[in-house]
Every structure is written in C-alpha cells, then in structure tokens.
Amino acid sequence: MRDFLKEPWPWYVAGPLIGLVVPALYWMGGRSFGVSSNLRHLCAALLPGRADFLRYDWRGSGGWNLLFAVGIVAGGVIAGTLLADPHMNLETAYGLTPEGLLPRELFSWEALATPAGILALVVGGFLVGFGASWAGGCTSGHAITGLASLELPSLIAVCGFFAGGLVATHLIWPGVLP
Q1: How many CB atoms lie within 10 A of CB 149?
Q2: What is the CA radius of gyration of the chain?
Q3: How far is CA 99 from the centre of its chain?
Q4: What's the rounded Cα separation, in Å, for the pair 167 and 160?
Q5: Which of 73, 80, 111, 154 has the most neighbouring CB atoms within 10 Å?
Q6: What is the tens place of the pLDDT at every residue in 101-133?
Q7: pTM over 0.85, yes/no
Q8: Are 132 and 36 in contact (CB under 8 A)?
Q9: Cα 137 to Cα 133: distance, rounded to the nearest angstrom
Q10: For 124, what's the count of Cα atoms within 13 Å in the CB-facing half-sphere?
Q11: In sequence order, which residues have a C-beta less than 8 Å from that of residue 132 and are 6 or more positions away?
Q12: CB-based contacts of 115: which residues, under 8 Å, 6+ apart?
C-alpha cells in the first residue's frame, strides 16, 4: 500500500479533492477563496488610513483571508521541508532538469539584473495586478470559488484566462525565445 504522506497523490485523487473541498467550504461558510485581495488587506492592516482605498474593516472582510494566505505559505514550507523526500531526483525520476524547465536566459539573477528583465518584471507585475483587479479576482479565485458558486462572470473570466494563456504560449512565447 502506498504511503500517502511520502508519495505524491495521483492526479485523480488530488484533483477531485481540491475540486470538492473548496466548494464544500464555500457552501458551508459562505466565504470565497482567492489570493489577489490579500495585498489590499495587508496594506490596510499595515498602513491604516494612508489612502481612502485602504480605509475599511479589513478584520471583518479580510482577516480570515490573510490567514488563508499564511496557510498557503506555511503549507508550502512544510511540504518542502518536513515532508520532502531527500532521495527525490526530478532528473532521475522524470528526466527533468532545471535548465529544461526554466531557461537560464529568462529565469536567472543575471537575466533579472538587466534593463529588459526589470522592465519585464515591472510591466508583468502591473499587468497581473491590473488584470486581477479588472476581472474582479485572480485566476485561482475565479477558477475554484467562482466556478464552484456557479457564477457566469467567473466562467467568462476563466475562459479568457485560458485563451490568453494559449495565445501567449503558442503565439507570443515562441517569438520571445528564439
């Protein structure tokens, strides 16, 4: 029998659990799960009264969501340290190398320290923040909570996210990386 704490769960177990747990929590607690609004809650908590946009009761509307985001980070740390398999080697197990997954021309400190790298980081961060704000939430919030609550705007947003990802992957990305 497989040891579920030391081995990755198969996609056909983990996927449905994610797909069922979040809607169940939404329907039981009436809370939507998303991460993009946490920056506003964090700024409202740390910089109260600095801007009209940050003057609201973040404890009542966002305190639990900040705890949710802290749990995401804590879960990643626990999974990466306490539950990590020191004998796991992606190259041996799956034939993957870091260079194959993340091209050094784009994903390295040297590439980031160039004017083009800084510009891409700033413009990309702005576009992600603007897009999440304009769409009324991030990809995870729409795809998991929005679809679970059967919201048409979330379905439209998720279709747009996928279409944008396909266009970027198949049309834009090949022009960026020769």
Answers
A1: 14
A2: 20
A3: 22
A4: 10
A5: 154
A6: 666 777 778 888 888 888 888 888 888 877 777
A7: no
A8: yes
A9: 6
A10: 8
A11: 36, 138, 139
A12: none
